[in-house]
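Subject: design request, 265 residues
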């Protein structure tokens, strides 16, 4: 592989948003590190799809909540490629519990919050060592609009809000070295992870309030993340960027009976 080829590390990229992001970055010329925890077959399928499309990728297993494994992961990428240009922190380390506060245990709550931050902390700390030396790079965290919501899981919302704050502190430090750090906060995306709560009623509700007229797909987020991670895009850092297909503003324009306004000629 040519030494000059850009390298992107995407955690949790064997499926869903991570897989879509990996494919989009590969299409833009990056050699993509497809990180996964346990689903080796799915990760290899992502690599195969990328290579079939003419891109370059490899799969590397690592638990991104384990510091030693993150060190090994980053050192392997550095040894083989000499660089990491883009880091996308996407891994869903702990599935959010949906119990209400009165039935939620502290252990379950803490596991979600800690898991979210542990992966981001270790990956950021190790990757920044490489990016600072090169004085360039892009870091993108995958958060959620749940960070600003009191309607869903208290553990999920708290974890994502903490991630948003963490990302802004990282941006302040990394900016001194020419590195941008931004966070994508998606609305509802149709993935395997969201399948349990993704009822037909919810899909209809989201479709009515979407610029797409449908629920978002992983590819919608993959494209957005790749745009923000582009090395030519240096106009924003420390930002929490909502990607919700217009749900926030479009929903405000729908009448109480759930109908859009009249079509314009």
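Subject: RE: design request

Done. Sequence follows.
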């Amino acid at each position: 592989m040519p030494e000059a080829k850009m390298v992107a590390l995407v955690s949790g990229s064997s499926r869903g948003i991570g897989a879509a992001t990996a494919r989009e970055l590969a299409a833009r010329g990056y050699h993509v590190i497809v990180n996964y925890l346990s689903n080796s077959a799915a990760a290899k399928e992502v690599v195969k799809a990328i290579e079939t499309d003419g891109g370059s990728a490899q799969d590397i297993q690592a638990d991104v909540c384990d510091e030693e494994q993150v060190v090994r992961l980053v050192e392997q990428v550095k040894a083989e490629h000499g660089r990491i240009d883009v880091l996308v922190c996407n891994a869903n380390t702990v599935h959010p519990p949906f119990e209400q506060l009165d039935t939620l245990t502290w252990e379950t709550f803490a596991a979600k919050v800690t898991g979210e931050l542990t992966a981001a902390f270790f990956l950021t700390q190790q990757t920044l060592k490489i990016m600072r030396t090169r004085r360039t790079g892009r870091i993108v965290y995958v958060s959620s609009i749940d960070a600003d919501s009191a309607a869903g899981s208290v553990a999920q919302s708290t974890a994502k809000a903490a991630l948003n704050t963490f990302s802004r502190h990282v941006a302040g430090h990394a900016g001194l070295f020419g590195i941008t750090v931004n966070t994508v906060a998606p609305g509802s995306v149709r993935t395997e992870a969201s399948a349990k709560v993704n009822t037909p009623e919810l899909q209809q509700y989201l479709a009515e309030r979407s610029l797409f007229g449908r629920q978002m797909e992983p590819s919608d987020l993959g494209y957005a993340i790749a745009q923000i991670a582009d090395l030519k895009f240096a106009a924003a850092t420390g930002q929490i960027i909502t990607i919700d297909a217009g749900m926030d503003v479009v929903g405000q324009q729908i009448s109480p009976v759930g109908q859009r306004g009249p079509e314009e000629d």
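Residues 140 and 228 are 8 Å apart (CA to CA).
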